[in-house]
């Protein structure tokens, strides 16, 4: 019973993450009935981006504690069928070393992005913590405007790592720029920008 509560909390965090990444969340996904939970595989979700219907994402919840290459291949096939270009795999423990290698290979070969999160990472939405400032992903146009306004090169911006927890939450990849808004006692708010590397 407690496991169901834990899974539904993780699912809630994933829905918030997808919403923050500007994916459309259906009413059914939001109001997922507790009674319809049978297995982790039932929690699988498919969403499309608000402004770009060709940009879609899958969220997989594997039943097995350790995820192997065969399961990764199965997920990639499912993605191909629906022409999804991104996926999040929420694992119970870890994925095998061969599966990690397969994730990297599929990402390079097939031009798809496979992200892996442990369940423990998604129990709490880190962006709701009071010490985590608001992060806003800039569009390409906003990024260009920022660089021209301050007459600077991309390499001169402060950096944020791709493996940073907030960068992973927002699905940032190399070259993305985020606007970070922090509260400030003197100025009201302090804005900074970071380049994902």
Tags for this model:
Eukaryotic RPB6 RNA polymerase subunit, Dna-directed Rna Polymerases I, Ii, And Iii 27 Kd Polypeptide, Chain: A, domain 1, 197 residues, globular, 22% strand, 4-stranded mixed sheet, alpha/beta
Structure description:
- Pfam families: RNA_pol_Rpb5_C, RNA_pol_Rpb5_N.
- It comes from Dictyostelium discoideum (Social amoeba).
- Its main location: nucleus.
- This protein has 2 domains: 2-122, RNA polymerase, Rpb5, N-terminal domain (Dna-directed Rna Polymerases I, Ii, And Iii 27 Kd Polypeptide, Chain: A, domain 1, 3-Layer(aba) Sandwich); 126-196, Eukaryotic RPB6 RNA polymerase subunit.
- It has 6 helices and 8 strands, in the order H-H-E-E-H-E-H-E-E-H-E-H-E-E.
- The chain has helices at residues 2-20, 27-30, 69-82, 97-109, 140-149, 165-170, and strands at 45-48, 56-60, 86-91, 113-118, 134-137, 159-160, 177-184, 188-196.
- The strands form 2 sheets. The protein has a 4-stranded mixed β-sheet with strand order 1-2-3-4, with helices on one face. Strands 5-7-8-6 form a 4-stranded mixed β-sheet.
Instruction: Tally the helices.
Output: 6
- Main CATH class of the largest domain: Alpha Beta
How does CATH name the architecture of the largest domain?
3-Layer(aba) Sandwich
Main β-sheet, spatial strand arrangement: 1-2-3-4
Could you tell me the CATH topology label of the largest domain: Dna-directed Rna Polymerases I, Ii, And Iii 27 Kd Polypeptide, Chain: A, domain 1
Count of DSSP strands: 8
Alpha-carbon Rg, integer: 18 Å
Shape: globular
The number of domains: 2
